[in-house]
Amino acid sequence: MTDLRIVGGELVPPAGGRRHLLSVADLTREDLERLLSTARSFARSQERETKKLPTLRGRLVVNLFYESSTRTASSFELAAKRLSADTLTVKSSGSSVDKGESLKDTTLTLSAYDPDVIVIRHPEAGAAELVSRHTGAHVVNAGDGKHQHPTQALLDLYTMCEAFGRLDGLRVAIVGDVLHSRVARSLVQALDLVGAESILVGPPTLVPTGLAPVSHDIAAIRDADVVYVLRMQRERMLAGANFVPSLREYSDLWGITPARLRDGQRVMHPGPMNRGVEIESSVADSRASLVVDQVRAGLVVRMAVLYDLLTAGPVALEAEVGVA
Ligand code: NCD
Predict the structure, then answer these.
(1) Residues whose beta carbon lies within 6 Å of some atom of ligand 1
(2) CB-based contact 241:267 (threshold 8 Å)
(3) Whole-structure pTM value
């Protein structure tokens, strides 16, 4: 672990070297391409009967989840295990968070075990950055409020690249509740970094301006190679605010149905899906759907992120994984 200085009670990371993954803004195009290529090597290693690699033996990955999660939590845990790291999962319910412990104190407590990585999901924007100020561990943001979800963007790019064989020039329509979506914010930035295009499609109440081009016409999705569907994130909406007249009307106007798609388009969704609201089951389960591929990509991309933060890079990886 790198040396840390303590200044005014706060940990100061050493200059140089990427210590954390808090936002897509932390990544260069080169970083992104290296991570996707590392993930591809891990995908090949996962085709073998013995899937576990010794790479991170003796390392500790703490998963700190203050919000519900199925895909993100399970894939980070499995990613760490497939790399032979120890894992410790702390969920806010059932922990001292229930007793009012602050995020800072929980971070200081868990940091006493000297973890190598803390993976954090939290309902407040900026939570991952706060954790990074109070620990010597590398911090990975697994979703902070409606701010960022960088590993989701990486796994989405990985999935698109596998499906289309390229990212440059790919057209992605992100449909639905962009306003409350950390997934959309990270994805737009990541697509921009690799030369792909995004357009945000949905009702004016749910699509902010200034992130990417916007359309309030569902027909705009027909020009896209990928239709990326978002859930109505009601838990992040202000209490009492009505962003749509009713879910029924939302689904009539904006729901992704087979009739709204054209041949050759692929459909993605970060999950959890609300079938019958933003996406019809007949689309979610169709050959156009990449939803299960996204989940599979989540494992190898998170292995790549842990590997990238903790080890020496692609040269060491070839020796480790045994694939050229
Ligand atoms: C997303 C999230 O939590 O931001 N889910 C995920 O990580 N796969 C999207 C959502 O909750 O709608």
Answers:
(1) 71-72, 143, 149, 152, 182-183, 231, 233, 270-271
(2) no
(3) 0.91
